[in-house]
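Students often ask why we bother encoding 3D structure as a string. The short answer is that it lets us treat folding as translation between two languages. Here is a chain of 392 residues written in the first language.
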Amino acid sequence: MNDADLRYICTVIGNLSGLPIRLFQGGEQVFCHSLVKLPADPMKVCARELMAITDHVGYYVTPRFSYYGVVNSGEKKLIVGPATQVGGEERELRELAFRLDVPPEQTGAFLSAMREIVPMPLESILQMLCAVNFMLNGERLELKDLTIYDAEQRALRSTVERQQFHSRMSGDVNPAHNTMGIEREILRMVQHGDTRALEAWIATAPAVRGGVMAADQLRQLKNTFIVTCTLVSRAAITGGMTAEDALALSDSYIQKCELLRSPERISNLQFHMVADYTERVSRLRGERTTELTLKVANYVQHHLCERITAGGLAKELYLSREHLSKRFKAESGQSLTDYILREKVAEARRLLDYTDKSLASISAYLSFSSPSHFSRVFRQYTGCLPSEYRKK
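And here it is in the second language, the structure alphabet:
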């Protein structure tokens, strides 16, 4: 098939699906078609993983649960995506723009364009690509023949703790049940955001004997995952996560689990899911927790990359600014401004630890008025400048 035919196929697929599609030749992009105008290509953050896929048809699920489909034919590669089942949240899209180094003045356009991408199930994309693969490679493939490529899952397999979690949480097919006490202990850790206790439990946990929920071992593991995810998400809600956040995260994890065909990958994902919920609750709860402080914490976590004001927060919670400030100080032991800035600085520390983004980029992403303002605030709450922190 010549280049003109391939470009025609890409254009038709892009128009049909509403998803960006790219054509590569020998590792170099030679064509791109997208109905939405993106200031930066979101594919760049996972280009290495996508380019490493060599099967005729494959897919990659990102840590944020968006996904890409790939077709290979000789030196030619088609990459479709990103797509999601339900669309991305505001903060996730802003994080993506940050990772792509989208200039602040273009961030709004980037967010708008990403929201215009049509949500589509991964299965629909892969079925479409199987048809393209048949045209290019003369090969008949079905969904069950395809392989997941997920660097996060490979990393999750690397420690003994995660292997232990498989043996303790995946469930032995044994009629004798001993799960009630173990479930309560895990759910208590999630509800209280007790990450240290969870790590200690994994190292010394007893073996789990779960009930039989399917005759097939893979289905048994998936059913166990779904039950665990359901219970953990409810514990997280009790611990302070909003129902919308907890259930949306649960849906994403269950959808990802259904795509897996390896018991090891399912157990790894299960470990990550429990740890993720526990960490999220931990960030929300802090040391002193009340209904009001949880509402404030949820709001701040959702808007960390925006300019947060006491007035805007008070309006969101249907309180006067004065009443909110007074109650929050009484219930948390710190002022509202202090709390907001501490959370922004905590996020800045994570970005300095785990990314190579410039101080100016981090400052803009967290909506500080200027890099110098960011440095002053960071020093106020950590005792050192951002540049000094990164060197340490």
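Translate back mentally: Strands lie at 21-25, 28-33, 57-61, 67-73, 76-83, 148-149. Keep this in mind for the problem set.
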